[in-house]
Amino acid sequence: MAREAILIIDDHALFRSGIVAMLSTAFVDVPIRDSASLDEALSTDAIAPSVILLDIQLPGIDGLRGMSLLRHRWPAARIVVVSGQDLPSTVGAALAQGAVAFLSKADRPERMMAVLREMLGPAAASSPVCGACPSLTPRQIDVLALLGRGLSNKMIGRRLGLSEHTVRGHIQGLLAVLGVARRAEAIFRARQLGLIR
Question: pLDDT grade, residue 130 (50/70/90)?
């Protein structure tokens, strides 16, 4: 059995499948399983997860109440709560229950990737895809995120307080870094690498 494995527990099938696809591409040597509920997760023998990505709002037992069950079943697993409820009180409750980190569903994918790379250590470092991830500046990441939402150069400039000429320069830099020729290819490649949703 692999030393590292990831279990995703979320009742939204579309979100769950998107996370599985992104992580499977990034962490090729790490087994990834998903469940729609805590009951389903606790009944699995497919893997012994080292990291659990846990939603709070679940059918049956919710994520916060179910954390003790997960810790009892897999004592060594690190639980990361991933939720759309990101109020300070919710974050505090999750951490108090034993979560090692809290991710908002509004966070950029690269934040989740950074948290998982830190937790998975060598298993993440061995991924050839992650090794190929380009190094982007914070401004390039901002431009790429807005590009992924379909905004024009003019709209990106307004959002970031930049001139259209400066935005064009950033996009040209992104195309070069990502090794593509067009905006649509840049968006596709960035999604493959988990840089944007």
Answer: very low
Q: Does domain 6-130 have CATH number 3.40.830.10?
A: no
What stretches of 126-163 show up as alpha helix (H) in DSSP? 128-131, 138-148, 153-160
* Distance (Å, whole) CA 19 – CA 52: 12
Q: CATH assignment of 134-192? A: 1.10.10.10
Q: Which long-range contacts (CB under 8 A, 24 or more apart) does 148-156 make?
A: 148/187, 148/190, 148/191, 148/196, 148/197
pLDDT tens column, 144-166: 888 888 899 999 999 999 888 88
pLDDT above 90 covers a percentage of the chain that reads 17
Contact 178, 186 (CB under 8 A): yes
Residue 52: φ, ψ to 5°: -120, 125
Q: How many CB atoms lie within 10 A of CB 59?
A: 11
Q: Which one-letter DSSP state was computed for residue 157?
A: H
Across the strands, what pairs with 34? 8
